[in-house]
Design a protein that fits this description.
The chain has 271 residues and is an all-alpha fold. Helix content is 74%, strand content 0%. It has helices spanning 2-17, 20-52, 69-79, 83-98, 101-107, 112-145, 160-182, 185-205, 209-212, 216-222, 230-234, 245-268. The model has no long low-confidence stretch (mean pLDDT 88).
Length: 271
């Protein structure tokens, strides 16, 4: 079983490395993330300066790159850009149907379960790659802007890194499900955007607040709460500085549901 899984990983890795569109899209996303991280402090500082020009008391500068807060700051911000890797996953999976790659692999002897396992491994590899990039960016920029106190690097907030991996993995599995259902790149992208922008919000409008929090996108967004800042504290508002166990369990359950649904679709649909 271990050898088979390694072969699947090797096959998917070779396909992705030789897929120029994937490489370009990943590099573009990495560049966007890096530029965003580099300009994040300037953006927040401008907000603080504008706030201090008003009639409220001056605020202490919100230090984006300060340990241990940087782990939450960077993962929270990066979470708002996860739509980009979701598009990458949709393109990768729908291209398998467009170019009949799935049919060729299964006819060649690859079982449908192993084929789906290969796609889920791609989702995990991309999630892990982005998570490592975010973690390294946070570490390097945090060290660069640090005044000399390194004691807070390894703190409870470092757990936001694996939580971000879970957030991204769950979100990309949802995108993979849409790709498996609709199979056409344009249709899958439009359906995913429609669900993200409208459909879940409409569903949430008719549900009690306690149930609304368990909807997929809401549960995913709840994993990393909005970081605290002097601006919010000025108005007596404070946000959580840790991830709730309930949200982790909810996302793990959704991953199981999404993967099971993809397997079911793969077995029921014709090649």
């Amino acid at each position: 079983m271990e050898t088979t899984f390694k072969q699947i990983l090797k096959l998917e890795s070779i396909k992705l490395i030789n897929y120029k569109t994937f490489v370009i899209l990943v590099l573009v996303f990495a560049a966007i993330l890096l530029l965003a991280f580099l300009s994040l402090q300037s953006f927040v500082s401008n907000i603080t300066v504008n706030q201090n020009n008003s009639n409220v008391p001056p605020l202490e500068l919100f230090k984006v790159y300060r340990f241990p807060d940087i782990w939450q700051n960077f993962t929270y911000f990066a979470g708002h850009l996860k739509i980009f890797p979701a598009f990458i996953i949709i393109i990768i999976i729908t291209n398998e149907f467009t170019f009949n790659t799935q049919r060729q692999l299964i006819i060649s002897g690859l079982s449908r379960n192993k084929y789906v396992l290969g796609k889920i491994s791609v989702v995990f590899m991309l999630s892990a790659l982005i998570t490592i990039f975010v973690a390294l960016s946070a570490l390097i920029l945090g060290l660069f802007h640090n005044t000399g106190d390194y004691s807070q690097i390894f703190s409870r907030k470092l757990l936001f890194i694996p939580v971000f991996l879970l957030e991204l993995f769950t979100y990309l599995n949802l995108a993979a499900l849409f790709a498996s259902i609709f199979r056409k790149t344009g249709l899958a992208l439009m359906a995913f955007l429609l669900y993200m922008i409208m459909i879940e919000r409409i569903i949430a409008f008719y549900l009690p607040e306690k149930i609304e929090t368990f909807l997929p996108l809401k549960a995913i967004a709840n994993l990393i709460p909005l970081p605290n800042s002097p601006l919010f504290q000025l108005f007596g508002v404070s946000f959580a500085e840790h991830t709730a166990v309930q949200d982790v369990i909810t996302c793990l359950v959704y991953n199981a549901i999404f993967i099971t649904a993809i397997l079911f679709i793969s077995h029921k649909r014709n090649l």
